[in-house]
Amino acid sequence: MMSETITLGKALNHGLRRALENDPKVVIMGEDVGKLGGVFRITDGLQKDFGEDRVIDTPLAEAGIVGTAVGLAIRGYRPVCEIQFDGFVFPAYNQIVAQVAKMYYRSLGKVRVPIVIRIPYGGGIGAVEHHSESPEAYFAHTPGLKVVTCSNPADAYAMIQQSIISDDPIVFFEPKRRYWEKGVVDLDAPSDFPLHASRIVRDGSDATLIAYGPMVRTALDAAQAAAEDGRNLEVVDLRTLSPLDLGPVFESVRRTGRAVVVHEAPGNLGLGAEIAARITEECFYSLEAPVLRVTGFDVPYPAARVEEEYLPDLDRVLDAVDRSFGW
User: Which of these, 13, 113, 121, 255, is most buried using a 10 Å CB contact count?
Assistant: First the structure.
């Protein structure tokens, strides 16, 4: 068994390489993904090894990238599109929601579009405007799309390969502030853990923290800090945002009686609202307090010098836990 301690970014690179090796119909396309290896170097070395026909540097035209991928997918390819930054996806939004999401249904199931759209998302890197968005709710709200997000290197390596193999179109959100965090990855084979399944990443008995992507690390740090005060918090990594896999969440909340949902995106109509509603519907008689949310604020993402005031952090998560215990 070949295991390595590597960064999340390197795990994605290894996963993309394995996908290119396993299927000649896999192509990667995007702005600067070839010669440069991507702005975050996620595709580093792939064009050199697989050629310009498999790893394609595109013009700066997101609608063109995704529109071309639709044509390729219909013709039997498995295109992997990189959107360079989260805020750049909106020129391609029409293609994604009007074409990619609907082609299978429009064709009465005759046409598959196995497209993966990779989007580095979230803040925390001191970037300028349009480089720190969290647009996941737009896509999770759209029927016909599947939406997943990794939070650690092992999941990144497995989930990118599972997404490329899938016959469904998948929006794959990568937590860019976690690209450089390391973890142990088994490089022999992709995980047999299902792609569209959430996972308990820390056991606990007093309250349930529910997070995904970049906020999983924040939730784990909060649980560690809470343990010093004698509180035992369980942490659930959602991993899949559409379809949501809330069975483990319900099971956890029925045991703990308290739930706090954490995400970077603004709170209004965010994933946290849907999760809170479903927990309330399914676990009402087990709840000792309302389901609480810790989110970004309902303002455009701020300038880098004040982004730490915007992003949910350990203190805001622990404050919500305290409020939950105050009921």
Answer: 121
User: Scanning the structure block, which residue is given the tokens 């119909």?
Assistant: 25
Question: In this structure, what DSSP letter does residue 232 have?
Answer: -
Pairwise CA distance, residues 146 & 168, whole Å: 7
Alpha helix (H) ranges present in 28-86? 46-50, 62-74
> pLDDT by residue (tens digit) across 116-144?
999 999 999 999 999 999 999 999 999 99
CA distance 87 to 97: 16
Contacts of 148 by beta carbon, 8 Å cutoff, 6+ apart: 159, 163, 170, 171, 172, 173, 195, 196, 239, 240, 241
Cis peptide before 243 (omega within 30 of 0): yes
Determine contact, residues 173/121, Cβ cutoff 8 Å. Answer: yes
Note the pLDDT tens digit of each residue in 146-178.
999 999 999 999 999 999 999 999 999 999 999
Amino acid type, 78: R
Q: Tell me: the pLDDT tens digits for 167-206? A: 999 999 999 999 999 999 999 876 789 999 999 999 999 9
Q: What angle do CA 194, 175, 6 make, to 5 degrees?
A: 75
Please report the pLDDT score of residue 192 as a whole number: 80
**pTM listed for this prediction:** 0.97
Longest dimension (CA), the chain: 60
Residue in this structure with the two tokens 């071309």, named with its chain if needed: 68
Angstrom distance (rounded) from CA 159 to CA 199 = 13
Active site residues: 131
14's enclosing H/E stretch is: helix 8-22
Q: Map 82-109 to HEC letters.
A: ECCCHHHCHHHHHHHHHHHCCHHHHCCC
